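Re: weekly structure request thread

Next one in the queue (142 aa):
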Amino acid sequence: MDMDITDIPLFAMLKSRMGYLTERQKVIAQNVANADTPRYQPQDLKPYSFQSHMAAAVSQSGPMSVAVTNPMHIAHTATSPNPPGVKSRKLADTETTLDGNSVVLEDEMLKLTDTRMNYDAAVGFYQKSLNLLRMATRAPGH
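Done, posted below.
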């Protein structure tokens, strides 16, 4: 009987976290791509929650995606509906241009950097955990 590595809770959590960070990067990239789209409101994912992502993985058969809500937006290749975790965000101090666009590129770049650092940390933890498993499965003295 073969065991899938994602059957181990630690690896399942890391896989879920890396999937979330990948989707967040896509949403941020879409915001940057639409920085000049009139009336475009930037999107973001809800903060990561392991419990909510495990529940979503059970109830949802496909990956998360972002829906195109305006034909003037850059088309997204996803076929599934807008996931519940993606939302329009408008803060009180958000800068809005005269054409109604409220994407602030500096904010998006900060979020992108944060997302990348979190992803790199998750990959590093995943690799270290794999190395521990390999070491634990070696015969003594090898």
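Strands lie at 43-45, 86-88. The two ends are 25 Å apart (CA to CA).
Next request, please.
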